[in-house]
Specification:
Length: about 70
């Protein structure tokens, strides 16, 4: 599958390297550490994934606290 873009100002990060079914996987199977030579898009994707993971952990912790407090009051 090739990526056709008429906007030449955007960097072409080529979707050819990615697994076509990676959107359905829990982990995309790529490196999650920032390394020299990475594009801004690759770095922003890694940072975004890490921030989302932290927010999910905090949400789960808050949810568990809420459920424990609610169970205690019942």
């Amino acid at each position: 599958m090739s990526n056709l873009s008429f906007n030449t100002e955007l960097p072409n990060d080529s979707h050819l390297d990615r697994d076509s079914l990676s959107i359905f996987k829990q982990s995309a199977g790529r490196e999650l550490t920032i390394q020299p030579g990475m594009s801004v898009k690759e770095i922003s994707d890694i940072v975004s994934e890490k921030v989302i993971a932290i927010v999910k952990e905090q949400f789960e912790a808050t949810k568990n606290q809420y459920e424990a407090k609610r169970a205690k009051n019942l």
